[in-house]
Amino acid sequence: MKIAVEGCMHGELDKVYDTLRKLEEAEGVKIDLLICCGDFQAVRNESDLQCVNVPDKFRTMNSFWKYYSGQAVAPYPTIFIGGNHEASNYLWELYYGGWAAPNIYFLGFAGVVKFGNVRIGGLSGIHKQQHYYLGHHERPPYDQSSIRSVYHVRHYDVLKLMHVKEPLDIFMSHDWPLGITEYGNWQNLIRDKKFFEEEVNNRTLGSEPAAKLLNKLKPPYWFSAHLHCKFPAIIQHGEDGPTTKFLALDKCLPGRNFLQVIDIPSNPGPYEIQYDEEWLAITRRFNSVFPLTWMRFTIRNEQLDIQDDRQWVRSKLNASGAKPFDFVQTAPPFDPSKPVSNPSLAVHCRNPQTESFLQFLELPYLLDSSHSEGLDRNVSGSQAGHPFGDDSIELPDEVEDADDDE
Ligand SMILES: [Mn+2]
After folding, report:
1. pLDDT in tens, 323-373
2. Which of 89, 160, 228, 291 could form a Cys-Cys staple with 140, CB 3.0–4.6 A?
3. Can you give the CATH number for the domain in which 318 is found?
4. How far is the CA of 50 from the centre of ligand 1 (A)?
5. How far is the CA of 378 from the centre of ligand 1 (A)?
6. Is residue 113 within 8 Å of residue 76, measured between CB atoms?
C-alpha cells in the first residue's frame, strides 16, 4: 500500500491532489491514501472562516469548500487530524471523527481507524499546558480566548489513546513529540531554523503528551507538521525494542518538502476506511466521563478496563459492519458568485454522522453546551480570570506564517 503523507494542508487541496497526480504519472505508481497532519482548514463557508484562528491576511477561502460542495471530488481517500488553524466549529461537530467531505475523513480530536489492515491513529490540536486538564468547554461562536483554546490538546483525549494496546502502524500528531530532535540531526535543524535553537537546547520544543504517546504506542511510523520544515528521526525504544521512524513535513508551497510517499506491506486492495474495534470500545468506555466544562478533568483510576465494551462493540460491528456513517452536509457551501460579506455567527450543529455514531454505540449526545447546565457552572462562569493569550509555543509557526507570502 502506498500512502502519501503531507504536512500542513492550509486548505490547498487542489494543489496537493494535483501534485499527487503528477507524481503518480512521473513515477508510475498508484497512491492508495493521503494522510495529512493538520492545519487542514476544512472551511465550508464564510461563517466557518470566522472560527479559524489565523492572521487576517491568511483568512482566505482556499479550496476545501469545492470538495465539501461536491464541485470537486477528492481523488484519493484522505485522512486528516486537526492542527491550530482549523474551522474548529466544524471539527467539533465531528469530535468522534467522520467525513468532512466525501472521501475526506477527519480522524477526530483523537482517533484510530483502519484502512485495509493498516491501523492509523492520531491526536488533533497542539499542546498548551494551561489548558491541558480542562474539559472541552469551547462552543461556537468563539471569543478571543476560546478560538485558541478549542484546539489545545486535552488530557482526556490523550488518556483514551493511552488505552490503545494493539499495535498501530501509523500515528499522527500536529506538533512534534517533545524531545524528538535528539533522535535526528538537530544541528542541521537549528542551522536552517535559528529561532528553534533555544527550544531545542532547553528541550522545550514539542508536545509532552505526544512524547508520552510515542513512548507508549511505539508505532513504526509517526508523522507531524506544524513547524513548517522537514525533519526525520529514528527512535529506538529500549535496547531490543521496536523502532519508530519519525518524519515532520513542511506545508504545501512550491519547492518545499511537504510530501512523502511510504510503502506499507498490506493485504491486496481495494481498501476503505473502517471503524476500529478497540478504539470504539475505548470511546464507549470513556464517554461517561467526557469532560465538557472548565473544570479540571480528573479520574480516580486512569486505567479503565474495556474488555466488556470490546465484546459489546465486536458484536455490534459483526451485525452492522464497520463502515463509517455517510457524509452529510450540515452548512451551505461557499458560493463564489454570491460571497457573503457579513457572515452569521457559527452556532453548534448536531451533525447526523455524529448522532448516528452515538446511536450505534448507544451513547448520549453531549457535544452541545446544554449538557453542562445540570452541573456546577461556578467554575465555567469565571472566564474573565482565565489565562489566555500566551501562545508562545505557536510563535515559530506564526513568525514563519508572517514571513511567507501565500
Ligand atoms: Mn500549525
Report:
1. 999 999 999 999 999 999 899 999 999 999 999 999 999 999 999 965 444
2. 89
3. 3.60.21.10
4. 17
5. 33
6. no
